Task: inverse folding
């Protein structure tokens, strides 16, 4: 079992398989894009699998595959097939922008990998294209509906962006009212490759809830697991639910059970903090298991108590990072 220096049990790994993405969302990177790392700097599928095996033995029982966009990686299904066979790994999930998942939906269903988070920040075509800087609305919409109708456990992640998509908050809830889907609204975070810096946000979790309550006054708060990052609600008459994630306000740090490994092997114990180790050279060397275990124990034993404390580790450079490079 992994337990950090604040007595928080760590059992959830967010494993990035690439830093590349086929969209160019304006809250994730500047218009000119970012410099993606060379492929030989990325962990191979075998290396990702080996790290997963070691971490499961240390107590990780839930792995979420992230990117970048995971399905940019052509050999992703090789990893998922092997993870599915791993003993003591109870939950495998994927976060995707749903542009490339279509050809793999049938096999994901066969494998039993049914927990899919879809990043979707607009339900209006023009807003979607303005945010993503790409013409992929129909593909995303069609794949989303297919995932829902084929019985996947779908959660929509919608980042509320001031002056861009707040007008889509109520319509997406209205559109999803007949589906067993959780729409989760996230506060914007300043990881956009230095394209924009900010110290405060207008659309915090309280403002988002107030906006929703004006359209849907009859909702109730749901009981959520202690490690949940979202505050969850159900609107009267809606089949699905909605949640709000205070990703900028960081109200959930006290129960954080997450560890991140980036596509280049960086170990990140908090999105707002510096990497605590790099595992790429270790898995390409000798004494792999012992050295990886030691690096992980050292990292979780030196976690910041909150995201605000973690931010102080590199307050001057933190917002130069892009979400696609730190694993979402």
Result:
């Amino acid at each position: 079992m992994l337990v950090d220096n604040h007595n928080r049990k760590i059992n959830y790994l967010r494993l990035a398989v690439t830093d590349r993405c086929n969209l160019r969302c304006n809250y994730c990177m500047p218009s000119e894009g970012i410099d993606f790392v060379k492929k030989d700097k990325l962990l191979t599928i075998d290396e990702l699998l080996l790290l997963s095996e070691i971490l499961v033995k240390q107590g990780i029982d839930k792995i979420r595959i992230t990117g970048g966009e995971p399905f940019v990686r052509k050999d992703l299904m090789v990893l998922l097939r092997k993870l599915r066979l791993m003993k003591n790994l109870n939950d495998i999930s994927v976060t995707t922008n749903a542009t490339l998942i279509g050809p793999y939906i049938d096999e994901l269903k066969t494998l039993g990998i049914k927990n899919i988070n879809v990043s979707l920040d607009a339900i209006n075509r023009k807003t979607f294209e303005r945010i993503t800087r790409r013409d992929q609305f129909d593909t995303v919409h069609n794949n989303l509906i297919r995932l829902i109708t084929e019985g996947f456990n779908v959660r929509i992640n919608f980042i509320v962006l001031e002056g861009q998509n707040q007008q889509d908050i109520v319509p997406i809830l209205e559109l999803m009212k007949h589906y067993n889907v959780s729409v989760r609204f996230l506060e914007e975070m300043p990881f956009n490759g230095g394209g924009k810096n900010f110290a405060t946000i207008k659309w915090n979790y309280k403002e988002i809830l107030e906006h929703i309550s004006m359209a849907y006054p009859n909702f109730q708060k749901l009981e959520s697991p202690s490690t949940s990052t979202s505050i969850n609600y159900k609107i009267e008459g809606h089949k699905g639910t909605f949640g709000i994630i205070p990703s900028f306000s960081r109200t959930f740090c006290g129960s954080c059970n997450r560890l991140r490994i980036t596509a280049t092997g960086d170990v990140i114990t908090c999105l707002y903090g510096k990497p605590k180790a790099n595992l790429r050279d270790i898995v390409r060397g000798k004494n792999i298991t012992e050295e990886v275990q030691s690096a992980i124990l050292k990292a979780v034993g030196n976690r910041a108590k909150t995201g605000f404390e973690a931010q102080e580790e590199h307050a001057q450079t933190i917002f130069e990072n892009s979400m696609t490079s730190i694993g979402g």
